[in-house]
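PROTEIN DESIGN WORKSHEET
SECTION A - STRUCTURE
LENGTH: 617
TOKENS:
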């Protein structure tokens, strides 16, 4: 049935406001799609709109168009729904009518907006109500009745077992506020990760979808999740407003829950806490999220969020910038555990390639200990304190206790899983190590870091075919990843397939920012009895080492493979003093068997704190 004339004029006026907005003014294809759907609905043909007709009428697909193989309509409809939500949250928040395209249909829905802050008025007489509003009320009542009746026969949707939080959109028009939108995404991922039985995709992978034009169905299929969370952030009169949607994507897009929240700018942490708590309960009604030890100082929290945002690229410069902002946060609020834990994590990252480990790990330990003391409920603090115990103190028992505590508090922490995998791998507990690393990849499926650690653990476990399998899957996403290429090449070389290793080593060699790559390439050449090639790579590593930290342990392994044991032990003693992170692998690297057979080894192992491990091997 066609919408009555008195409503058509208002709907068309609302449509023109939407099309003139910044969200649609430059989006011709989406504007054409919305205009078509509105006109068809106004003409009474909304229920008959099909994907096939939209493809032909709007997107000029020919007679051969097959929606099963060409998903243009589904993709564009998903983008349209997102744009409409963004418009309603920002420019259109004061519109009298709300235009939407509910998931599962192409018919347009037009309803009066609901303004929670509007003063209540006396009920008007029936004669004063437009006929279209009467019909809207009747339709809403029938919809509620249908839902109530249907619930008697239809079971509740199966519980959500996995989800991803898509990056929140910053709709303030100010790019300088992006760090706040990222902060909403970050903390929501962390808090939902604490919900029992729920798998939550990690921050690194989630952030890779920022600005994506992929449909929600495509994203869900790539990440293998049951549901997606999407949201946006706007500012209004000194407040921050967040719009949040929980969408079931198992069979078709179905909006399960939506909410708009608004807090004062200075209460951003309170806004996040309320948002995360409400969403957790929608996913699992019995879920409870532990409150922070104390509310953070607003300025300290803003500095912390800026640090998290700047750390995103993962480069040395980015990590050092982030540390500065975490320092600003703790200068304002000395008991801010989140900033201290992130500061500790940053120093652990620097200890691998960019900073003398003895210095970096000492600072990491101090910050991690302070973080746990300030907030004993913070999983991240236990994870990084466990890493410091492993790499700095060589205290396996303390490290395992902290890492298990972190995973108990947040089973979805890819960081804690990776540290736990490293701990288990260093002790020869390869099945545990590889299972934890595979779980980290599952939670962080577009992270080179996660794939690289899984490959490394498979290498030290001498499961070379699996190294190649994992690497080839990773290279489909990032073909130039240096460490992924390096480990695939190593898997071939360690099996004696040196020619197959060459193209992977060549791609890895292009990354000459850290000494580790030429040192590993040199090690592979030494094991292949290519002494000149090994020495050339060693010289290259020392050249890079003039401007970058060079790991004495890795130098020692290369000298050991060349049969130069005196030089190997000299460098190993230096690595011991520098607290090289790589000493973790002394007992398990397969190419170090000859080194471990040397009569000098037990004394060295005792200094490292590995004597119990020595006796167990």
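SECTION B - SEQUENCE
RESIDUE ASSIGNMENT:
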């Amino acid at each position: 049935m066609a919408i009555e004339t008195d409503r058509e004029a208002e709907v068309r006026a609302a449509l023109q406001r939407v099309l003139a907005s910044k969200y649609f003014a430059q989006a011709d294809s989406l504007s054409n799609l919305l205009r078509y759907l509105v006109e068809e609905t106004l003409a009474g043909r909304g229920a008959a709109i099909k994907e096939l007709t939209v493809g032909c009428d709007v997107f000029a697909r020919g007679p051969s168009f097959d929606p099963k193989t060409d998903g243009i309509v589904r993709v564009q409809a998903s983008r349209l729904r997102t744009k409409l939500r963004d418009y309603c949250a920002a420019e259109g928040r004061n519109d009298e009518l709300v235009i939407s395209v509910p998931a599962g249909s192409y018919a347009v829905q037009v309803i009066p907006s609901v303004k929670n802050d509007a003063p209540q008025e006396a009920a008007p007489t029936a004669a004063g109500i437009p006929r279209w509003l009467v019909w809207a009320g009747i339709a809403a009542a029938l919809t509620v009745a249908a839902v109530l009746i249907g619930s008697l026969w239809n079971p509740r949707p199966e519980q959500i077992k996995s989800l991803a939080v898509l990056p929140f959109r910053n709709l303030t028009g100010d790019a300088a506020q992006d760090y706040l939108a990222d902060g909403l995404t970050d903390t929501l991922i962390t808090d939902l990760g604490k919900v029992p039985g729920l798998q939550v995709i990690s921050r690194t992978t989630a952030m890779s979808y920022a600005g994506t034009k992929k449909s929600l169905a495509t994203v869900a299929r790539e990440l293998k999740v049951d549901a997606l969370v999407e949201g946006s952030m706007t500012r209004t009169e000194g407040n921050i407003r967040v719009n949040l949607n929980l969408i079931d994507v198992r069979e078709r897009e179905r909006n399960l829950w939506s909410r708009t929240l608004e807090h004062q700018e200075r209460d951003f942490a309170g806004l996040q806490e309320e948002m995360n708590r409400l969403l957790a309960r929608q996913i699992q009604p019995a879920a409870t999220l532990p409150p922070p030890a104390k509310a953070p100082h607003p300025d300290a929290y803003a500095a912390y969020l800026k640090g998290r945002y700047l750390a995103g690229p993962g480069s040395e410069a980015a990590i050092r910038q982030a540390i500065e902002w975490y320092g600003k946060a703790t200068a304002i609020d000395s008991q801010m555990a989140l900033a201290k834990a992130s500061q500790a994590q940053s120093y652990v990252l620097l200890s691998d390639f960019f900073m003398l480990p003895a210095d970096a790990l000492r600072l990491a330990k101090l910050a991690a200990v302070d973080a746990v003391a300030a907030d004993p409920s913070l999983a991240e603090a236990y994870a990084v304190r466990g890493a410091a115990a492993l790499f700095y103190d060589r205290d396996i028992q303390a490290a395992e206790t902290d890492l298990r505590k972190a995973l108990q508090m947040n089973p979805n922490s890819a960081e804690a899983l990776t540290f736990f995998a490293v701990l288990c791998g260093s002790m020869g507990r390869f099945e545990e190590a590889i299972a934890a690393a595979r779980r980290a990849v599952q939670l962080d499926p577009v992270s080179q870091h996660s794939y690289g650690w899984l490959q490394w653990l498979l290498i030290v476990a001498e499961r070379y075919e699996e190294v190649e399998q994992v690497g080839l899957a990773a290279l489909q996403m990032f073909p130039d990843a240096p460490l992924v290429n390096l480990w695939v090449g190593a898997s071939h070389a360690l099996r004696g397939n040196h020619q197959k290793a060459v193209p992977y080593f060549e791609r890895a060699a292009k990354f000459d920012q850290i000494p580790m790559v030429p040192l590993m390439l040199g090690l592979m050449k030494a094991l292949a009895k290519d002494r000149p090639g090994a020495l050339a790579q060693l010289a290259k590593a020392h050249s890079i080492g003039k401007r970058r930290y060079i790991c004495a342990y890795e130098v020692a392994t290369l000298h050991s493979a060349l049969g130069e044991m005196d030089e190997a032990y000299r460098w190993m003693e230096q690595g011991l003093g520098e607290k090289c992170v790589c000493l973790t692998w002394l007992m398990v690297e397969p190419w170090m068997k000859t080194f471990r057979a040397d009569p000098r080894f037990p004394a060295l192992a005792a200094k490292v704190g590995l004597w119990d491990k020595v006796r167990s091997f």
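SECTION C - NOTES
Residues 131-153 form the longest helix (23 residues).
The longest strand covers residues 254-264.
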